[in-house]
Model the fold of this input.
Amino acid sequence: MNPKVDWFFDEAEKWRPEFEKLRRIILDCGLDEELRWGKPCYLCEGKNIVIIQGFKEYCAVLFFKGALLKDTRGILIQPTENMQAGRQIRFTKVREIIEKEAILKAYIKEAIEVEKAGLQVKLKKTSEFKAPEEFQKKLKETPALKKAFAALTPGRQRGYLLYFSGAKQAKTREERIEKYRKQIMSGKGLND
Done:
């Protein structure tokens, strides 16, 4: 146990017993514990394997390369439609964690082997992400915007495409595009 991570467990109001049980199970698998993104993260030879997460309706263990696991039990969940590599196992009670302890350890050991083998998740290219019609239209109308968007890093481009596409209504998509137009022109990403 890493004392620098203790505060996360000490401060947890919701899911504290679940977090503590997950921590013991994961550490039993021989992983190193660190604090990353404000959460307990478990590593093998400096590489991220799993992270403990807490949400309103559930807590979870997220496998960074979960898409590469065999998932023989069918318990891995893709948290969002656009998450390419990570997969979660979700829990709502300590009892569920106890019941799945052996399975969880087997998945963690498989994740360690995936990492040691150097396997990589094949990620979609930026060109495979669909730009919403409203953004395509704006790029056609404004050559400078098209040039500025093309100059962004692939990650920044994906960020914008996902954000713009995430709006259900055309009006909202248009508002988002207009709001971030200057930022794109300045060569900045969505969160810069």
Summary: The CA atoms of residues 94 and 102 lie 14 Å apart. The beta strands are 32-36, 39-44, 47-54, 59-63, 87-91. Residues 126-185 form one domain. The two ends are 34 Å apart (CA to CA).
